[in-house]
Amino acid sequence: MNNADTYLKKVAVLIDSVLENLLPSETVYPTSIHTLMRYSTFAGGKRVRPALVMAAHEACGGKFGDEMAILAGAALEMFHTFSLIHDDLPCMDDDDFRRGKPTAHRAFTEALAVLGGDALCIFAFECLAKTGRTDLIAEIAQALGTHGMLGGQVVDIESENKPIDRQTIEYIHKNKTAALIRASLRAGAMLAQASDEELAHISAYGNAVGLAFQVVDDILDEEGTTEQLGKDAGSDRAKGKATFPAVVGIPESKKYAAELITRATAEAAYFGKRGELLKDLANFIRDRVS
Amino acid sequence: MNNADTYLKKVAVLIDSVLENLLPSETVYPTSIHTLMRYSTFAGGKRVRPALVMAAHEACGGKFGDEMAILAGAALEMFHTFSLIHDDLPCMDDDDFRRGKPTAHRAFTEALAVLGGDALCIFAFECLAKTGRTDLIAEIAQALGTHGMLGGQVVDIESENKPIDRQTIEYIHKNKTAALIRASLRAGAMLAQASDEELAHISAYGNAVGLAFQVVDDILDEEGTTEQLGKDAGSDRAKGKATFPAVVGIPESKKYAAELITRATAEAAYFGKRGELLKDLANFIRDRVS
Question: Fewest CB within 10 A of the end CB: N or C in chain A?
Fold first, then answer.
C-alpha cells in the first residue's frame, strides 16, 4: 500500500466518523429525509475531496487532524453527494445504480431525492459556517455554481447525443468535476493561512488534477469492468454522454491524463517534502481502478 | 395606499434592481440556466421576505437602504425562488403555472429546473458570504434545512391524500413557510446588531406572522378567484394537499389567523414607533388578496 492509499484510508475513517456525528440521526423527524441523507453519504465514496482538503492543508503548513480542515472536508463530501443525487435523477442522467447500490430516487422516491440533495447542500453550508470564514464559503459557492459545477452539468446534459468538440468537453470536465476538486484544495490551503504564492501553486495543481480525475473516469468507463465500476462498463457512451475518449479517442485521452498528472506533480514539487502527499495523490488518481 | 403597500413597493423596486445587477446576465454561458434563474426570480413576487428583512432591520435601529440588509434581502428572495422551482417539479407538486406564468420546468426543461433551483440556492449563499457574517449564514441555512423549510416540504409531500391532524398541519406550515419568514426577520435584526431582547421579540413576531402568512394562503386558495391567485382556486384541495381549512375548517382558520396577527402586532409594539411598519406588514399579511 502506497502513501496515497494509506492517507485516503486514514482520512476516510476520520471523515466518516465526523459525518456520522454531524448528520441528523435517522430517528429524527422527518425520518425519511434523514435516512436518505445518510444512505447516500455512506454509499461507499473514497472521500477523495476531504483527502485533498487535508493534503493541501498539510502542504501549506497545517496539521493533520485540524478541526476546521476536517469540517471543510466533511462539507465538501456532502456537496459532492448532493451533486450525485441530483445528477442521477430520471430527468438528468437517469441512473438506477451507483457504486453497486440503488440510487437515492430508486431506494426512496424522486421527490425525496430532490429534497435530500437540497438538504445536503444546505447542511454543508451550515457546517462551513462553523469555520467562521466567509471567504471559504464564497470560494466553494463559486465552484459549485453556474461558473463551476452546475455550469458543467448544464452543458453536459445539453450535449447528450450531440457531436461535440474538444473545447466543449474540456469546459464540461473543468466545471463539472475539476472546479470542486480545485476548491477542495484551495479550502485546505486557505484554512492553513497559505500565502498568495502557495495558493497559486495549489490552484494550478487543482486545475491539473481535477481535469485528470475526470479524463481517467471517462477512460475507466470505457475500459473498466462492471465489477470495478459498480455500474455497467461503457454506460456513458451508451447514453450518448460527452466523454473525452468519445471526442479524442482512448490513446489521446491517456496521453492527456498523463500530461496533466505530470503538470500536477510539478506543482506539488513546489511544496518540497510537505508536497509529497499531493504528488502521491496525483499518481493515485492516474492509477485508480474505479 | 397604506404604509405596508408603500413600503413593499419601495423595497420591490430596490431589490429588483439589486437582483438585476447580482444575477448573471442571460447572455453569459451557459445561457439556458441563467435565463431560467432570471425568469423565475422576476416572475412577479411581491418581495415580502426582503421587506421583512429591512423592516426588522429598521425596527432594531438600522437605516433603510443599508447595503448589507439589501444583500440579505436579495439572497432570501433567491432562496424563496429556489424553493418554489423545486416545489413545482412534476415529482413534487406538479404545478404548470405560478403567478399566471408557466412554471420553470414547463418554460424550460425538468433537468434545467432542478439545476436552476440548485444554482439560485448556491448563489444566494455566495451573496450572503459578502456580508462577512457566518452567524447569518448558519441562521438561514438552519431555517432552510430539514429542521425548517425542507422538513416542512417533506411532511407536506408525505401527507398528500392522507387524513392529517392539527399538529401535523402546524408542523408543515411552521417549517415550510414560517421558518424562512422568521429567518428573514432575524437576519435583518442581526445585521442591525440587535440585542438579545430585541431578537427575542423579532423571533416571536416572526413565528406568528410566518404561520399567519400560510394560514391566510390556505384560506385564499379556498376563497380566492383564479384571477386573484394566478392559479386555479381550490387547487390545493383538489390535489389532496394538507391545508389548514381542510383540517379545522374555514371559520376556525380565520379565527386562528386573526389571533396570530394580534400576537404579531403585540410583539411589534415592543419596538414603539420603529415597530409601526412591522405592525402594518402584519395587517397586510392578514388582508392581502393573493
Answer: N
Spans of all domains in chain A: 3-287
Cβ contacts of residue A286 below 8 Å, gap of 6+?
Answer: A212, A216, A257, A258, A261
Of the ranges A183-197, B58-72, B74-88, B239-253, which one carries the lowest mean pLDDT score? B239-253
Q: Is B81 on the interface with A (CB under 8 A)?
A: no
**d(C-alpha A262, C-alpha B64), whole Å:** 55
Measured in whole angstroms, the distance separating CA A71 from the mean position of its chain's CA atoms is 16
Closest Cβ opposite residue A153 in set B109, B115, B138? B115
How many whole angstroms separate alpha carbon B278 and alpha carbon B290? Answer: 19
Which residue of B92, B122, B147 is in closest CB contact with A141? Answer: B122
Q: Does A32 contact chain B (CB < 8 Å)? A: yes
Predicted-complex ipTM score: 0.97
**Segment 147-186 of chain B within 8 Å of chain A by CB:** 147, 150-151, 153-155, 157-158
Pairing of strands B97-98, B101-102: antiparallel
pLDDT value at A224 more than 80:
no
Average per-residue pLDDT in chain A? Answer: 95
Tell how far CA B280 is from the center of its chain.
17
Q: Which of B210, B209, B216, B218 is nearest to B241 (CA)?
A: B218
Q: Is B30 on the interface with A (CB under 8 A)?
A: yes
User: Residue A253 carries which side chain, given as an amino acid letter?
Assistant: S
Question: CATH assignment of B3-287?
Answer: 1.10.600.10
Chain B (195-214) residues lying within 8 Å, Cβ to Cβ, of chain A: none
Q: Do the strands A97-98 and A101-102 form a parallel or antiparallel pair, or are they unpaired?
A: antiparallel
Q: What is the pTM of this model?
A: 0.97
Residue-wise pLDDT tens digits, A131-156: 999 999 999 999 999 999 999 999 99
- Distance in angstroms (rounded) separating the CA atoms of residues A244 and A180: 19
Cell match 495558493: residue? A199
